[in-house]
Structures are given as C-alpha cells and as structure tokens.
Amino acid sequence: MPSPVKVIVVGAGSRGQTYSDFASIHPDRMQVVGIADPRPFARRKLQERYKVADEDTFDDWHCVAKREKFADAVFICTPDRLHKDPAVALAKKGYHILLEKPMAVTEEDCTEITETCIQSGVMLVVCHVLRYDPTIRKIKELIDSGAIGDIIHIQHLEPVGFYHFAHSFVRGNWRNEAESSFALLAKSCHDLDLIHHWAGGRRCIKVSSFGSLSHFQRENKPPGAANRCLDCSVESDCPYSAKKIYLDRVKMGFTRWPVSVICSTSIPDIESVTEALKAGPYGRCVYECDNDVCSNQVVNMEFEGGLTASFTMVAFTEELCLRKTSICGSRGELSYNGHELRVFDFLTQTSTKYEVDMNVPGCFSKAGHGVADYHLVDSFISAVASGDPLLIQSGAKETLASHRLVFEAERARLESRVVLCGTNCV
Ligand SMILES: NC(=O)c1ccc[n+]([C@@H]2O[C@H](COP(=O)([O-])OP(=O)(O)OC[C@H]3O[C@@H](n4cnc5c(N)ncnc54)[C@H](O)[C@@H]3O)[C@@H](O)[C@H]2O)c1
C-alpha cells in the first residue's frame, strides 16, 4: 500500500481547515505534517487534530520555505494578496501545490506562478472548486457528447446573496480591492472559468463589461442609523443588520458560516459573537465601511466561431451562489437552476432530467460547495500519489487562460471599451 501524501497547510483559516478534513476521512491517503499560520488559535486547532510536532508548526510561510523539503505538497490558503510569493518559493522547493483562487491578483504574477511550476516540474491545482462539482462535470460531459449540438450561446448568472455580499464584500475580507482584489476576480473567477471551460478549445476574442458598487455607500445610510448595529435604533428595519446575520443565528444554535468566521481567536458562542460585533469589522453599519468592490457586474464575450456568452454577478438576491445557467445549442437547450439539470431536445421536443451522485464521505458539507471541495482534494491527492497530472481539472495553463479573461473583462469595465483579447487595443 503506498504511503499517504504528506501535506503542509499554509494558511490554516477557513479554507485551509476545510481541505485538511480530507486527512481525517482518508488518513491512509493524506497526512497533515506541517502548518504555517500567524494566528495561534487557527494553528493550534489543526496541530491538535493532526498531531503535528511543534517543530513543524510555524507562524509564517517563509519558515516553511527556509526548511529542507519535508512533505510532498502544500495547501496555500492564505489571503488573496499572499498567494504569489509562497506559491513561487514553494514550487521552487519542489512541493506540488494546491493554491486557493485567485491564483494571484495580477496577470504578471499568475504568469510567474505558472512558469515556475512548469520549470520546477511540480503539479499545481487552483481551487476552482466548481470544476469538480458532479453536476458541472455532467454539463461538460453533455456538451462534449453533442447532446445540444454546436454551442451557440451561454448565459450564466451568479446570485451572490444579499447577506453573503454584506458579510464578505461589504464588511469582510473581500470588500476592498487594495486589500484583496476586484469582485470579478475574487468572486467570479469561478464563473468565467466555467464559461471558458464550457466553450471548449475556443479562444475568447472580444469582451465588454459594465458594473459598479450600488447601495452600500454612505449616502444610503438611513436617518438615525448608528455606525455599529449593536448601537443602532433603526436596526430592526435593516436587512443587513449584523444582529440578524450573526447574533440571531448563534442564539438559535447555528454556528457554521458566516458565524464561524467572525471570531478569529475563539469558538463562536453568544458571548464571543457579541464581542466581535462590538469591536470587530462584522459589527459595522454596511453604509459606513471602507468597501469599494462592485456589487453588480455584467460581462459579454465573443469566442472564436461566433459563440457568445453573457455573465451576470449581482449581490441583491435571495439565493446564495446558486448559479443559473442556460446553454443554447443548435439541437437543444441545456438548463441548470442550481437544483435541476435538464436538456430540451429540439428534434423530439422532449426534456430529459439528469441526476448526479452528490454524496461524499465524512464531514465535507453537503451544502454550498462542500461536495466540490471534497472532489478537488481527492483529485489533487490522487494526482500527487500517482504522479498523474491528468487527474487535475484546474491546472496551471487552463487557469491562467481563464484568469486572463477575468483581467481583460475588468479592463473593459474600467476603460469603458471592448477589449480585443490578447491585445491591449480597442
Ligand atoms: N475556492 C473557493 O471557493 C474559495 C472560497 C472562499 C475563499 N477562497 C480563497 O481562499 C483564501 C483563504 O480564504 P479564507 O476564507 O480561508 O480566509 P481566512 O482568513 O479564514 O484564512 C487565511 C489564513 O491565512 C493566514 N495567514 C495570513 N498570513 C499568513 C502568512 N504569512 N503565513 C501563513 N498563513 C498566513 C491567516 O492567519 C488566516 O488564518 C483566499 O484567497 C480566498 O479568496 C476560496
């Protein structure tokens, strides 16, 4: 029996912990042997769970890079602006890399990561988790089998969800472009990657985009509102109230995301959540934050051969990230509303529904993208164990290509023009 793949977790926050769960379910396939994170609380949690030696836990990724190589792979789950340096340094040390999306926050840095991994002969998987979702895989399989003929148009909607947007993109880690990245990269790189994937080998040749930050601005603050929800006299009339999003949930015994990520030094309970709302970023009035990323954005694309695609990201929705997709082909239409996948055949004028197996073992959540998270780690660990990069769906080259499309779409928005992809002119 082959020995388990040894992994070092760099960034033991929400994502680092989720991916590490694979070692609890399959200790024969993966072992956590090192941890780097400046937060003692986060570090200790993983150290205790996986019995990692003190000398193999660090408060910064640089310490891992300075040591002799002592594992097969690293999971890089640090904040967006801290992806490129550890990825390049650890690829050079010969570690295979699981890297959170976005790869990096500039096109130059994404290119450098890709080139370094290729030159160092290491495998890279970028956490475009949706590519590993069984339904998304089924969609690709149906397209490739010719079930809807030639693809003519893709329409794809990402409803972010009103309180998810307030949590992550108004109060939280991805609210400010200078601190993380622009919304199309931070949130929707998954979606442009899917569109790119579904378009097959076709290159996107033209892109345009519009979008802005709406509503979550100082001028929309209701009269009488305070700067913190716990002190606010008009909070009861506010759908974005932190009391409703966090405190009411923990009072009902709900401690998963988003409640789970707001207490950075302790487990969430009524006391720690109240404390976090009194002093921390998540208790701020949504009209008084330093947020600047878009709340709604559209992207239009034309691919080689005339295939068109249209993407919408919007904050103000009931659904949380439950994407809606329609792919129109010459012989049929494929539609997926986040619950049901079906193909309408133009010849027979009948619909066929498709179901996929969404079961995964252990503690990977069945909600959100938990199933896809499991399959992503499964693919990466299998690829490292067998030395077969073909098991990876979101490797360096295809991710670089779809990230380039994201940078080009954002350039089109900022410069109010159609960008001819691969060039810099109108
Ligand atoms: N694939 C997805 O669908 C998905 C979903 C959410 C987040 N993300 C991405 O995952 C990354 C991490 O997000 P998260 O939600 O886990 O954030 P997080 O804040 O919970 O975790 C990041 C961790 O990195 C640690 N860190 C900071 N500096 C470090 C350093 N110098 N060395 C080592 N560790 C360091 C922090 O202390 C923190 O624990 C981000 O890039 C984010 O955009 C991806």
Task: Note the topology.
Blueprint: E1 5-10, H1 14-25, E2 30-36, H2 40-50, E3 57-58, H3 61-66, E4 73-76, H4 84-92, E5 96-99, H5 107-120, E6 124-126, H6 134-144, E7 151-159, H7 162-171, H8 183-186, H9 189-198, E8 204-212, H10 242-251, H11 270-279, E9 296-303, E10 308-314, E11 324-329, E12 332-336, E13 341-345, E14 350-354, H12 370-386, H13 396-415, E15 419-420
Parallel strand pairs: 1-2, 1-4, 2-3, 4-5, 5-6, 7-10
Antiparallel strand pairs: 7-11, 8-9, 8-15, 9-10, 11-12, 12-13, 13-14
Helix pairs in contact: 4-5, 5-13, 9-13, 10-11
Bound molecules: nicotinamide-adenine-dinucleotide (NAD).
Describe the structure.
It is globular, with a radius of gyration of 22 Å. Helices cover 34% and strands 19% of the residues. The strands form two sheets. It has a nine-stranded mixed sheet. A six-stranded parallel sheet has the order 3-2-1-4-5-6, sandwiched between helices. Helix 4 (84-92) packs parallel to helix 5. It folds into three domains: 5-122, Rossmann fold; 131-216 and 292-358 and 394-420, Dihydrodipicolinate Reductase, domain 2 (2-Layer Sandwich), CATH 3.30.360; 220-283, no CATH class. A hairpin with a 4-residue loop joins strand 9 and strand 10. The protein has helices at residues 14-25, 40-50, 61-66, 84-92, 107-120, 134-144, 162-171, 183-186, 189-198, 242-251, 270-279, 370-386, 396-415, and strands at residues 5-10, 30-36, 57-58, 73-76, 96-99, 124-126, 151-159, 204-212, 296-303, 308-314, 324-329, 332-336, 341-345, 350-354, 419-420. With 426 residues, it is of the alpha/beta class. The structure holds nicotinamide-adenine-dinucleotide.
